[in-house]
Every structure is written in structure tokens, then in C-alpha cells.
Recover the amino acids of this structure.
């Protein structure tokens, strides 16, 4: 078989391997569920399908629009599910491997490019970001294509390639925040070309102007949006502490970040489990040594245009992490992916050179007006090699990299990373498993689900993970200990994440009517029979006059306790479905003296009324401190927004008096 066919088959095998490690179990196993950012992405995609179009979406701290339109296409074709959300990122991840090969083939030849692509195909960092429904992985694709076409212009001098490079540079602006480092690269490298190689800029100034103008015009809609003070990127202001310190004259945070980033390739990596295995460096010891050797080699050979290119690219890529917190942040350095594995291969080349073997191609393009502007560049200067590495050895090295890093990455993807309790929390493993349990139990038609974000993210999360469309959902809960329960009108099943406990007094009361079963990450409560609440008090109807929303106070039950607190459970029943635009309803319990003076109060009801149905039961635990001189308690409901209007009884009273226990 001819050599070029063997190289193509090897590349095809690399791309198939990249596809496999990016998609195997990426819906059902790891990640363990949808993360809030992924859910937020889906909500933006839904907005696009509903006709909301933009170059930048301000939701979820602000998102560039490019990846969302790509992802929305899959949502439109496949539906509202995790496959539609994550498949676009996985495909971008595979494309990033192809682009990495294409760029490094231009820089260092086919043999080196195959090994570099093999590493990126199965290295944990690119694989990890390819398995999430997030936009960052699209940046290496567009920016890498920009680099490929830019290099083609350098080799041929054809302006068409330069225009294509500028178009992809502009498109990169719409992918991810770290794309702001790309113009820094081109500005820096322009001066490098002029200073290091004495580039006769006068011969190419029209090309540079064309590139800059095209880049600017493609990016202009986004620029016009972001320069509006009303569209400020709030996320930037939360993480740019080192940059602000630098602007104030303190260089220490930036220097510390720089050292942390340098160490991140071989000593101690990204500190956040949200961005991979915490503190694990990008490379293991052997390739870390080769990386640092390659970095030193590139610095020593900086007058070779190829080495200056990868140095400036790497340098620009790490800037977003240098000037922000939590360095080294791999997601903020994701622009570096096309050259990340290049440096270890450059280091490996130096070892091969000791034995008279060449892995990296040293050919210089012929008939290139631009390259002929570099008088210092020669085909063999500084090279000790005399023999090219046999392709059989290249294939063996490629296979070794694939096997080694694939096994390492699969271990981290399926064992180390998902077993972190932080990962299980952030990627909502409990809610995901609740959804699967609901799908399997066809008798469930209505459920009430406790969670950490019942007002905002729990409902869209469950809409993604529950495949059935015939289940009515209620949501309640809060971070910490649950003090509210919403019970569907017909006394249906209740779920909560096991790590999100009920207040013990509330759970003890609930277990009078329910049986609990813990199944790993979640606990399920099944009714023992029709609702039969043994309560004090009598039915009192209270109405929010503006909306007509009614709550019937069914009664209360004091909780016997030896502490210095008063604990009281109140039960209400929904009499009408609240207006969707109305602010959430809250319950209050006041402890007053004989003159009506307020001594203590408790406000509760952690359950958005958007999910209530007529006849649902609302159960609330109230806790008040004992106070000398207390005479009675006053219970009521109000709308949780100014001017805080209260619900009133038909008599006009806005409180229900409850005697002290």
C-alpha cells in the first residue's frame, strides 16, 4: 500500500478513536446528568427556535451566539434531550482533532501531525470538553482553521487564503470568551515577523490591511453589541481579580498565575472539578518532560517561523487564564488545543536527533513570495537529523499514544471524575436518576420533586431527563434542609435527592402518611393511602385579591421539642392556580406579645407557585425562638414582592391567630 494511503488510514483510525472516546456513554454514564450551564444552553436554544435571535445572549452570564445556532440545529432535528445538546460539542471535538492534524501537517509534516493528532484525540482535556454541551470546544475549530489558512497564505502568498483566515478569525469571536486572545496573537506575531525575520512589511501591507479589515467586519456585530454599557459581561467582572490588580500596579497575582499555568502541564493542574479531575496536570510525567523540553527548544529556535508561531499561539492562549482567578483554568486556555501536543513532539524530535533520526519535516515551501522574505530560514539550519523516521515507527508511536492516553482518559472519565461528590452535585446526578425512575414506573402520573433550584433550573432539568411527556411535576426545596413539601392533590409520589434532607421534624410528620425508600442518590416517598392529616384548627380561606389566588388553611400541628424553639407545621390547600406573572407566595408566622408587638418571625414556603395545581397540599415547617412575654402567634400569606400584599379572609382579616403550644 502506498505511503500516503497508509497515512490516510492512520488518520481515519485516529478520528474514529476520537469519536469513540467522546461519545461512549456521554449521555447515560459520564457526565452523570445535565449541569446547570448545559440546561441554560438548552433554554437559549429553545429561545432561538421561538424566534429570539442575537449575536450575543445575555442569559447565563452572557453567551456568544455562534455555538448556540449550531446546537439549535440538533435540538430542532433530534428533540429536547441530552443527545441533541452534547452531540454538537462531540462533533466539534472530533473536528478539532482534524484541524489539529491539518495545522501541524503544515508546520511540521505528516508524521509529526499524525502523532500530535493521536494525542489530542484521546487526551483528557479535549475529550472532557467535547463531552459537555458547552460552547468552548468550538473555539479550537474556528481558530485552528484560521491558523491553517493563515499558514497557507504564508506559503503561497494567495490573498484568498488570507481572507478565509480572517473570516474564521472573525467567526471565532462568536464562539467563546477566550477568543479575545486571538487578536493578541496576530498583533504579537505581526511584530515578530517584522523584528525576528525582518519581514519587508511594505511588500505585504495590503494583505495585512485586508486581513485586519475582514476580521474586524466579521466581528463588528458582536463588537457593537458589547460596547453598549447596558450589555456588560457580568461574568468577566467576577473573575478578573488578577487583571484588576495588574492595572492597579500589583503584578504578583499575574505572576503567580503564570507559574501555575506553567506547572499545569506537568505538576499540578486545574483546581476545579467543574473543569476536569482537580489538580491533575495536562500531561503525565513522561510527556510533561517532553513538553518542557519542546518549550525550551521552541524558544531556542524562535527564529524558525514555525516555532515562533506555536510559541506565540500558546502564549496568547494562556492570557485569559493569566488575568483571571483559578489558574490554570483549562477552559479559558482552550484556544491552545491545536498546538498543545505539538510541544512534546518537538521535544521528542530533539531526542531522535541525537540518533540521527528526523520526525519533523524541515521542508520549506518553494515559490512563496512571503516565505522568501525570511532570509534566516533554511531547510537544514540547526538540524542534526539525516534520516527520516520510518512510517512503521510513526504508526507504532501513534498507536502507543492512543492506547496510553485513551486508557488514562477513560479511567478518569468513567471512574475518577464522576465519583467526586462535587461532580455528582454539579451535574445533578440525583435529579437525573429520579427522572429515570419516573420513566420506568408507568403508574406515576404526578410527582413532587425536591431540589436545590426549584424556582429556576430544576424544572427544565427534569424536562430534559424525563423522557415521558405525561407526567405532571411540582418542585420545591432549597439548599440546606428542606422545610417545605408540596403534595399533589391525589397524594402522589414525592422525591428528594438523598443529600438534600428534610428537616427531621418535617420528615417525621410526613412518614405518618408515606413510606420512604432510599435508592442511592435519591429517596422516594410513596403514599400509604389517601391523605388524612390529623391537625388542629379549622378551614380558613385566604385570597390574594389582585389575582384571585386562594389558599385554604387546613390546620396546624405543634411539634413537641425540648429545645428553646417553637416548631409548628401548617398545612394549606391550593384553591386556584396562581397567575404565572405573579411573584411567589410566601407564608409568615409572627410571635407577638399581648399588645401585638412583634417578638420573632419566620417566613417560608420554598415552592414556586408556577407548578401548583388546584387541590395540591402545601406543608410548611415554621421555627420560632421562645421569647419572654409572648402571647400568641399570627399566621398569614403574602406575595413575595413589593408592596408585599397579604392574602385576606372574607372577613377582611389578614392573619390567623394560633395560640401558643
Amino acid at each position: 500500500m502506498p505511503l500516503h494511503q497508509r497515512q490516510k488510514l492512520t488518520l481515519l483510525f485516529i478520528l474514529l478513536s476520537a469519536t469513540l472516546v467522546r461519545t461512549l456513554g456521554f449521555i447515560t454514564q459520564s457526565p452523570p446528568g445535565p449541569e446547570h450551564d448545559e440546561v441554560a444552553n438548552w433554554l437559549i436554544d429553545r429561545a432561538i427556535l421561538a424566534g429570539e435571535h442575537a449575536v450575543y445572549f445575555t442569559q447565563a452570564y452572557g453567551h456568544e451566539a455562534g455555538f448556540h445556532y449550531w446546537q439549535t440545529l440538533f435540538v430542532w432535528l433530534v428533540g429536547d434531550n441530552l443527545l441533541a445538546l452534547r452531540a454538537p460539542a462531540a462533533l466539534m471535538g472530533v473536528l478539532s482533532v482534524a484541524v489539529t492534524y491539518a495545522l501541524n501537517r503544515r508546520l511540521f509534516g505528516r508524521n509529526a501531525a499524525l502523532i500530535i493528532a493521536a494525542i489530542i484525540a484521546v487526551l483528557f482535556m479535549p475529550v472532557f470538553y467535547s463531552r459537555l454541551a458547552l460552547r468552548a470546544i468550538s473555539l479550537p475549530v474556528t481558530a485552528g482553521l484560521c491558523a491553517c489558512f493563515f499558514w497557507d497564505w504564508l506559503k503561497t502568498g494567495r490573498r484568498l487564503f488570507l481572507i478565509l483566515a480572517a473570516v474564521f478569525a472573525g467567526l471565532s469571536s462568536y464562539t467563546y470568551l477566550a477568543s479575545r486572545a486571538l487578536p493578541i496573537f496576530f498583533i504579537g506575531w505581526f511584530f515578530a515577523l517584522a523584528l525576528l525575520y525582518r519581514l519587508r512589511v511594505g511588500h505585504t501591507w495590503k494583505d495585512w490591511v485586508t486581513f485586519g479589515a475582514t476580521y474586524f467586519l466579521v466581528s463588528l456585530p458582536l463588537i457593537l453589541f458589547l460596547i453598549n454599557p447596558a450589555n456588560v459581561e457580568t461574568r468577566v467582572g467576577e473573575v478578573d481579580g488578577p487583571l484588576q490588580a495588574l492595572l492597579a500596579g500589583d503584578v504578583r497575582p499575574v505572576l503567580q498565575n503564570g507559574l501555575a499555568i506553567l506547572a499545569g502541564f506537568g505538576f499540578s493542574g486545574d483546581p476545579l472539578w467543574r473543569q476536569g479531575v482537580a489538580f491533575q496536570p495536562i500531561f503525565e510525567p513522561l510527556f510533561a518532560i517532553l513538553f518542557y523540553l519542546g518549550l525550551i527548544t521552541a524558544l531556542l529556535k524562535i527564529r524558525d517561523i514555525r516555532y515562533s508561531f506555536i510559541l506565540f499561539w500558546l502564549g496568547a492562549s494562556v492570557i485569559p487564564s493569566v488575568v483571571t482567578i483559578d489558574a490554570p483554568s483549562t477552559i479559558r486556555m482552550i484556544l491552545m488545543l491545536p498546538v498543545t501536543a505539538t510541544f512534546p513532539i518537538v521535544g521528542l524530535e530533539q531526542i531522535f536527533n541525537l540518533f540521527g533520526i528526523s520526525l519533523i519535516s524541515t521542508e520549506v515551501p518553494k515559490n512563496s513570495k512571503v516565505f522568501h522574505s525570511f532570509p534566516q530560514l533554511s531547510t537544514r539550519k540547526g538540524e542534526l537529523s539525516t534520516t527520516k523516521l520510518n512510517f512503521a515507527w510513526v504508526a507504532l508511536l501513534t498507536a502507543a499514544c492512543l492506547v496510553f492516553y485513551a486508557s488514562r482518559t477513560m479511567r478518569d472519565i468513567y471512574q475518577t471524575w464522576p465519583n467526586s461528590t462535587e461532580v455528582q452535585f454539579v451535574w445533578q446526578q440525583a435529579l437525573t436518576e429520579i427522572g429515570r425512575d419516573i420513566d420506568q414506573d408507568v403508574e406515576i402520573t404526578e410527582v413532587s420533586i425536591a431540589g436545590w433550584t426549584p424556582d429556576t433550573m430544576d424544572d427544565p432539568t427534569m424536562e430534559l431527563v424525563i423522557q415521558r411527556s405525561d407526567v405532571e411535576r411540582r418542585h420545591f426545596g432549597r439548599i440546606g434542609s428542606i422545610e417545605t413539601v408540596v403534595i399533589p392533590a391525589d397524594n402522589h409520589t414525592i422525591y428528594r435527592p438523598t443529600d438534600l434532607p428534610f428537616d427531621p421534624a418535617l420528615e417525621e410528620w410526613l412518614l405518618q402518611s408515606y413510606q420512604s425508600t432510599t435508592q442511592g442518590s435519591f429517596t422516594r416517598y410513596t403514599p400509604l393511602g389517601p391523605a388524612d392529616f390529623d391537625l388542629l384548627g379549622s378551614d380558613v380561606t385566604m385570597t390574594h385579591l389582585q389575582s384571585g389566588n386562594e389558599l385554604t388553611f387546613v390546620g396546624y400541628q405543634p411539634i413537641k421539642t425540648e429545645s428553646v424553639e417553637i416548631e409548628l407545621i401548617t398545612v394549606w390547600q391550593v384553591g386556584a392556580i396562581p397567575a404565572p406573572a405573579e411573584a411567589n407566595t410566601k407564608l409568615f408566622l409572627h410571635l407577638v406579645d399581648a399588645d401585638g408587638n412583634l417578638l420573632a418571625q419566620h417566613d417560608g414556603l420554598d415552592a414556586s407557585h408556577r407548578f401548583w395545581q388546584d387541590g395540591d397540599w402545601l406543608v410548611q415547617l415554621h421555627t420560632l425562638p421562645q421569647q419572654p412575654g409572648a402571647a400568641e402567634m399570627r399566621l398569614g400569606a403574602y406575595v413575595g414582592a413589593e408592596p408585599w400584599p397579604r392574602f385576606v379572609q372574607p372577613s377582611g382579616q389578614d392573619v390567623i391567630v394560633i395560640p401558643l403550644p
